[in-house]
Amino acid sequence: MEQVRNLTPVPQPTSGIIASSVYSAGKRVADISVEEAGEWAARPGHVVWIGLLEPDRNLLLRVQAQFHLHDLAIEDAEHPHQRPKIEQYGDALFIVARTAQLIDGRVTFGETHLFVGTGYIVSVRHGPSTSYAAVRQHWESCPSSLAKGEDFVLYAILDFIVDNYMPVLEQIEDEVEQIEDKVLLKPMTGADIERLYMLRRDLLRLRNAALPLVEVCRRLTSAELPQIHGAMHPLFRDVTDHIRTVQEKIDSLREVLAFAFEASLLVGQSQETAISKKLASWAAILAVPTAFAGIYGMNFADMPELKMEYGYPTVLVAIALICVFLFWRFKKNGWL
């Protein structure tokens, strides 16, 4: 099935009703008010598609009155921060999905609440979220697909949500590759480690947002939900495959970030070890003249070497030879 991604922002109001239309045979019949929605949805072969953005309670109650939605579902739609789930209230389904966008280098999440019943679908968006106007415009150009009904619209929205996880992951992947390129060159700074931690945390949150949709799609393909026609089951299984792909990519990126952190620690330890070896080597070399100076600086009265004619140059030559030998030996072993 063709994927839809919203690559260009679509102008939209700040809140309230974004779109309210009725379709027949996949074609838009009219733009309607909320108060007309129930009457149109009751007509055979018609589907009402309403899109809301952060509606107030009064607007939700107006929608509830048209489609006889359950009070608990309305309460959930009014208060975001729900985990992804699917609930059945009588003849209607209530579905929660999490949306994701990358804003200022951080993954930010929104929510979409979906009410699905015979002849209607209502989407309620909260927080950062890509407009579904792109979905509406795309499938309006394919009436034969849109004519399949409200369960196809549900599929189109869920598929759009899952597909839009990928641009977020692609941007994170680009940053992860940059981290990989420089991790072996030098140890990470405190800012680098903090950024790595935030990326892993955001990826975990994205995983927790995406993975529950597998269970949502599993239930949508089961026989226990008569609202979903059997012909739609392969499409929801396709969404499940996309979610699995997102999960695998998230797990892969988290592993790469973990390896990058471990590699940075090893590089740091290796550099510290190299510095310690150099310091130890020079300390051993400098210990030779220090030892000679200490011995002949003790000022004992009976030290025969002090009376030797060539004692002084002999000691200097001995110091030089020992130091050169130590330097050669440390250099050969890679310590210097």
From TrEMBL:
Transmembrane segments: 279-298, 310-330
UniProtKB keywords: Cell membrane, Ion transport, Magnesium, Membrane, Transmembrane, Transmembrane helix, Transport
SUPFAM superfamilies: CorA soluble domain-like, Magnesium transport protein CorA, transmembrane region
Membrane-topology descriptor: Multi-pass membrane protein
Chief localization: membrane
GO molecular function: cobalt ion binding; cobalt ion transmembrane transporter activity; magnesium ion binding; magnesium ion transmembrane transporter activity
Superkingdom of this protein's organism: Bacteria
Gene3D superfamilies: CorA soluble domain-like (3.30.460.20), Magnesium transport protein CorA, transmembrane region (1.20.58.340)
Catalytic activities: Mg(2+)(in) = Mg(2+)(out)
UniProt keyword Transport, yes or no: yes
Location in the cell: Cell membrane
GO cellular component, one term: plasma membrane
Entry function: Mediates influx of magnesium ions. Alternates between open and closed states. Activated by low cytoplasmic Mg(2+) levels. Inactive when cytoplasmic Mg(2+) levels are high.
PANTHER family per record: CORA FAMILY METAL ION TRANSPORTER (EUROFUNG)
Similarity remark: Belongs to the CorA metal ion transporter (MIT) (TC 1.A.35) family.
Name listed for the protein in its UniProt record: Magnesium transporter
Species of the source: Rhizobium loti (Mesorhizobium loti)
Upper taxonomic lineage: Bacteria, Pseudomonadati, Pseudomonadota, Alphaproteobacteria, Hyphomicrobiales
